Amino acid sequence: MDQLLTLLGYEFVQNAIAAGAVIAIVSGVVSRFVVARNMAFAVHALSELGFTGAAGFILLRLSPVFGLLAGSAITAVFIGTLGVRARGRDVVVGVVMAFGLGLGVLFITLYKGYANQAFAILFGTITGVSRGDVLLLVGIGVFTLAALAAVYRPLTFATVDPEVAEARGVPVGALAVVFLLIMASAVAEAIQVVGVLLILTLLITPGAAAERLTPRPGAAIIWSVAIALFCVLGGILLSLVTNAPVSVFVTSLSFACYLVARFVAGPRRRELRAVRAGAGDEGRPAAITAR
What CATH class is the domain 2-204? Predict the structure, then answer.
């Protein structure tokens, strides 16, 4: 405990905790919609092509963080405009991701120096962020949450019932592109913690666990943020004590939270289904119920 208290006095630890809190909040909010809209594969594509953007910016001697944003944003626009419908979206994601990964390999090959920054993006470097990086992450996070708040109601409607939402005049296609851009911002932030290879941990697992705990969208977002905060901050603190990578603990805690959510929600869901089935039987004719 004394060792942990001593470490908390260092600036790099304070920066890591502040950055982790910002990233967890943004990831937790976005994760709920990622799960509800079945966009796990799109998250994978955004993260990997974000790496391509970072590699390209490193080749140009520019900031890899802005490269992450640029690569993810361009990918979001391509996926959103080419694959609005869920039915064909995975095919578009696969095509765009394959092309982007090829470009990433080309950029790394052309770079003649040591691409330490690019490889750090693969695994995450939360304990290496500076005060300036924290401020940048806060700015990106505020923009992301503000954009999500602006489209929250129509996005929720389009997520629950896209056909009815479109019939009511909701711009489902435009919302798909906007949400993908919001996802791109969240991906660029979450990569700072777990890296490209483990991005699914923060942008899928909290939302998936929250979905098991409550069917209400607002409550699910709160649960998702709480789970993300627990996993990120807990992962950082455990990493400081053990000197193991942060991503190991973040992924382990996330998986544990998902298992607990399934265990807790299992009996509750079965009870709810039984109540609904009983209510349905009461309203049916006796001849049908007896079958």
Answer: mainly alpha
**234 within 8 A of 226, measured Cβ to Cβ:** no
Query: How is the chain split into domains, by residue range?
Result: 2-204
Residue 62, by phi and psi: left (phi above 0), alpha (psi -120 to 50) or beta? Answer: beta
pTM of the shown model? 0.78
> How far apart are alpha carbons 28 and 67 in whole angstroms?
23
**Residue 120 pLDDT greater than 50, yes or no:** yes
Which has the closest alpha carbon to 180: 86, 283, 67? 86
Instruction: For residue 117, give the DSSP letter.
Output: H
pLDDT at position 290 is 39
The residues near 238 (Cβ < 8 Å, ≥ 6 apart) are 244, 249
CA dist., res. 222 & res. 230, Å (int): 12
**Structure confidence by residue, pLDDT tens digits, 239-272:** 888 888 888 888 899 999 999 998 887 655 555 4
Cβ pair 191, 232 in contact under 8 A = no
DSSP H helices in the chain:
2-7, 11-36, 40-59, 64-82, 86-110, 116-123, 131-150, 152-160, 162-167, 172-194, 200-203, 205-213, 217-242, 246-282, 286-289
192 contacts 120 by C-beta, under 8 angstroms: no
Kindly state the percentage of the chain with pLDDT values over 90: 15
